[in-house]
Amino acid sequence: MLCPPTNLQNETLEFYLTTESTENISFILGVSNQSYVLSMGDNVTVKATPVSPWVKLFKWDKEDSILVTADSRDNSDTVCSILALQNAKCPVYADEAEVRAGGTQFQTFTSRAGMVARRENFPDGVHIIVVPLPDDDPCTLAFSERANHTSRQKSVILQVYNHATIASTWYVFLLTAGAMATVISSFTALSIRMIRRNLTSETVAVEDEDERSLLGESGHSGTHGRIRVEEMAGVSVLSGGEVGGTMSEGSRREGVSQERPFVSASLSDGHLSRNVSNEPYGRLQIDNGSRDLQPLPYAVPSTYAPHHAVLNFSASFNPRLVCWWKRLAVYELRTADAQVAEIGFQNNVLIMAVFTALPTTELVRSYLKLLLYHGQEDQCFFNSRCLTAFGTLPDFARVFTNIGYLLCGAAFIIIVKEHKKFTENILRQYGANNSVGVSRHYGLFMSVGYGLFIQGVMSSLYHTCPNSVTIRFDMMFMYVVAVAAVVSMWGFRHGDVTHHVYPTMVMVGMILLMAEAREWVSQAAFWTVLSLCYVFLMVTNTILLTKYGVWSFSPYKMLMVWKGWRPVAEKLRNELWGSATTAKPLQIVRIVIGLVVNSAIILFGCLADPNIYSYILMVCLINMGLYFLNYVIAKICERESVRALPSIALGISLILWILALAAFFFHSTDSEASPSMSRAKNSPCEFFGVFDTHDAWHLMSALALFTFFVGILTLDDDLCHTRSDKIHVF
After folding, report:
1. Structure confidence at residue 222 (pLDDT)
2. CATH 2.60.120 boundaries in the chain
3. Which among 201, 401, 448, 467 could disulfide-bond with 695, CB atoms 3.0 to 4.6 Å apart, if both were Cys?
4. What DSSP designation does 273 have?
5. What is the pTM of this model?
């Protein structure tokens, strides 16, 4: 008996048999005493039904923790059942209602299950209970998928294994952390050393010291943007009378002041001499001849200014003659607004992380409470056959291996800062009229580093209790990192692109909101609407790339494209079928490849009906990879060299990505399925007795992303001494 009275020597058994048969029934009753104790290492096959559950007892010896596994056999892996653990005291809860009421630790399963029992939670021993359920709804979570079983008998093989604890495996975690820190710090140090060598300042002959001093600090900081060199000159003669005011940017370009009137004279057939007389009656000398300006009737203070300079007039500074040089470096990229926008995006990433982590922490804490205090293991989808608990973390290994993202994020931020410092040093050696190198948006690269670090935090929170709800938070910063990386690459050769980030992130957010509709509408309706939106975005940006050479998810810009569809259609036709097509084969080929790949993605979504959040992430990552390949191929076609560091980093990244994806596709859990279906994929630990393939994915994907982003950051270091106006745009 499971719960015999204390000190009972003799047992009296009474059997009652009833039948509705009108005839006598013959039967044989056999009674035997079988031990229900399950020992370490033994495997026992039990057969149970909803009305006759099976109970086994495990008694503690020297173990502090055990792993109890259950595997279905005899084609009973479709029968939904409960595996429950209870402290070896009476009464024994042997039906579904009692098991769910409390006092046990339980989980549903169909093909396999696994639970960890610790001596501190089960001091008197462990009752192992198998209870088949009347139907399969708790396992499938779909009433429409009920199976019409003629038999609800469940045949299960039970086994007990010694379970490794953190006390016996702490050195594995310590060595893993040390190895990751060593690898990342070594690669970081090597990268900084190679960046220093690649970006070492060289002594350069500056053609125009006067121009460089004219522009002051703005001409030194090449990291402040891409340079456009203008072949022009002009003078502005301002009328006297008023004092104060500012030349607006529009007035400087058009030659008409909004604050105070002046007359502009463009000297297209010559250029101004550097020597402007400070005498009361000034004269300007022109290279191809002498032209005298009539002197003003009073003494005229003069000043020098670049074409786009902002001049603040006051009583102490009130020039009447403003002139600029014939060759001027004008910053197209790093305006103050652009720098503020990048810093704002960095701050927004951090703010978003805080306000995402806080509710996620509370949500995970509530799930853990149900798991730890009420025994409901269906709340979290662990790989129950590879668990190492630490404190209140049931699966410490999955949380721990996110250390790779944290270390890689911090290391990448350091590399970005060092790269920025060396770039500024080398560009200080050049004048504003001969600035060099591509435009780098260090603010966006910093955001990528922040995103890597925050991804490690969010992934740790997710793996504290993984399920179909918390996985949404795990993916969130993957979108952010992908978008920031694409915009950063685009910005190398397209000036100020910070304005791309916000519309793109808003578009991704709107699509994620739309994804919630998948739970409320039919598959056909959802994918039809989503595909139409996808096609709209794809065609609109194809037109933008064809006509303007840019892309944008700004609603206003996309609306403008379709408002003027007739000239755009004509332009597109000329680009695709006109004589100019062969002049830009790379641009046409990359657009066609993008259309084909994204059309295939749309078709895959409609036919396979994948998880929508994973699908959106796949779209972001595939398009990031496409643009990266396009950039590398275009760079090769332009016969630009690639330095050793990006080659090494991207080569290592490729190898790591192959290994990481191989580990990723060996799923040991499935957060999008039901708990029992997820457990059907559980597998033992493959590495050092504590890590499984998903842990390997964490470590290798972090390193792969890190080296990939280092490769992107340094990809154009070969152009660090190339004049900006000589760098091809693609």
Report:
1. 39
2. 43-163
3. 401
4. -
5. 0.75
